[in-house]
Amino acid sequence: MTVFDNDFGRHTTHTTPGTLARRLADRALAWLDHRREQAAERRRHRLDREAYRALLGKEDWVYDDMGVTRADVEWAARLPLHMNAARELDRLSSRNRMGR
């Protein structure tokens, strides 16, 4: 035999206006924190890329010491901002050294 529980008062959630406002405020603050973190990450990528671009004007002997060519540095400078150009250039340099 199946027994149905008809006591609906026991199953209702008690949402007061204060808790709803608190939940909305918490979600808004979480969204703002997320956006702030994204903006900081984009800024860090831009600063990293600006520092990397200092390599573009170097002489060829600097590139030879690094194990890359001028074309490799120019290629890495054109990568999208979300990619770390220095890391990609390091990977390329490692591959070049393995081929020697």
What is the element layout, followed by pairings?
Blueprint: H1 17-52, H2 60-66, H3 70-77, H4 85-99
Q: Care to count the β-strands?
A: 0
Helix and strand sequence: HHHH
Number of helices: 4
Total discrete domains: 1
Molecular shape: elongated
Radius of gyration of CA atoms, rounded to a whole number: 28 Å
Helix content, binned percent? 55-70%
Query: Major β-sheet, in short?
Result: none
- Assembly type of the shown chains? single chain
Quote the average pLDDT.
82
**How would you classify the helix and strand content by structural class?**
mainly alpha
Distance between the termini: 81 Å
Low-confidence stretches: none
Strand content: under 5%
Structure description:
The chain is built from 4 helices and no strands. Helix content is 66%, strand content 0%. By secondary structure, it is mainly α. It has one domain (16-99). It has helices spanning 17-52, 60-66, 70-77, 85-99. The mean pLDDT is 82. It is elongated and about 80 Å long. The longest helix is centred in the middle third of the chain and has 36 residues, at 17-52.
